[in-house]
Every structure is written in C-alpha cells, then in structure tokens.
Amino acid sequence: RRSIVARVGHKLLRADLSSAEALLTGWFARDEQAMRLARLGTHKYATAKFLGLSVSLEMTDAELKPILAPMKERDPRLYRQVKTVIYGGNYIAGPRKIFENNPEEFASQAEAAKFLVFCKGLPPKIGAWQQQVIRQATATKQLKNPFGYTKAFWDLPGSDGPACVA
User: Fold this and answer.
1) Is the peptide bond before 124 cis (omega within 30 degrees of 0)?
2) What is the pLDDT of residues 76-108, one digit of tens each?
3) How many helices (H) and strands (E) does the chain have?
4) How far is CA 65 from the centre of its chain?
5) Cα 142 to the chain's mean position, in Å?
6) Does the reported pTM lie above 0.85?
7) Which of 96, 89, 55 lies closest to 74, judged by CA?
C-alpha cells in the first residue's frame, strides 16, 4: 500500500467491503433479515446463536451490537466453522465439500453437516432464492446478471448449480 502515492491534490481512498457477499446474497434473495445480519455480522450472530446466547432479530441493532462484538474472539474456532459453512452454503456447498475443503476446521463430514443445517435456518429466504435461480437456469439454460451479461448453464441441477447461484 505504501508503494502507491496519490498525486498532489488527490487522495487515495480505501473501501471496506466486509460482508459485501452476504449483503448481495440477501439483496438478490430480497431478504431484509439477511441484509440486516450482513450489516451486523452474520458470522457473529450465528456464533452467538450456536453458543446459545440470548440474541434475536427482534432486538434492535443497538441491543445486538455489544453482544455480537466479541464473538470472533470469544470462540475463534467456532467462528471460523460458522463462517466457512455460511460462505459455502451461499454457493450451495454440501457437507462433503465443506469438510473436504476445510479438514482443519471440521472433525468429520457429519460435523460440517450439523453446522450446515444450523446455519441454513438463520436467513430463511436464501435457500428459496437459490432454488428459484437454479429452476430459472434449468428452464432457460442461461441467466442474465444485473449488468446485462448472459452466461449459459447446461448441467443443471448438477455441477452448474453452484455456478448459477454465484
């Protein structure tokens, strides 16, 4: 970063894109709860829920933020497991793929499956949106993204399933 210097009279800006994927997934799924969780910290919220803490989306942001703030440091391994499963789930990864790609995080495929079932229930509209996208791609053999680019999909709901959701 220090190797790039702004010209005189100009400034360089840095943007924080943390939670951008989660926010976009919520936006595409038209899931206000998922977008709110992305802003608050989806992984922190899921970690708190998994630990059995008293957190609810009925709470205000002001009530949730101090509870969620320490979650990453409170149980780093659990936080990583939750994060891995949520990101994988957003791209329709199953427990086998999650376990095989992250053997350092999960003791078994069954453990990855337990986390996947738990995390899928947090933003409920995401799964329905994913299935709708796969149905649409299956019917039309293509999808058009918001920027107008079209991509063909031929192996649906097989290996192109995660690709069309991505």
Assistant:
1) no
2) 999 999 999 999 988 889 999 999 999 999 999
3) 10, 2
4) 19
5) 23
6) no
7) 55
61: CB partners within 8 A, 6+ apart? 36, 39, 40
Please name the residues in contact with 14: beta carbons below 8 A apart, sequence gap of 6 or more: none
Q: Distance from CA of residue 97 to its chain's centroid?
A: 16
For residue 143, give the DSSP letter. Answer: E
CA distance 112 to 153: 28
Q: Cβ–Cβ contacts within 10 Å for residue 92, how many?
A: 19
Provide the pairing of β-strand 150-152 with 142-144.
Answer: antiparallel
The C-alpha torsion from 20 through 23 and 24 to 30, rounded to 10°, is 180
End-to-end Cα separation, the chain, in angstroms: 30
pLDDT of residue 1: 64
**CA dist., res. 1 & res. 136, Å (int):** 43
What is the enclosing helix (H) or strand (E) of 152?
strand 150-152
Q: Give the C-alpha separation, 114 to 156, whole Å.
A: 26
**Dist. CA 150–CA 77, nearest whole Å:** 39
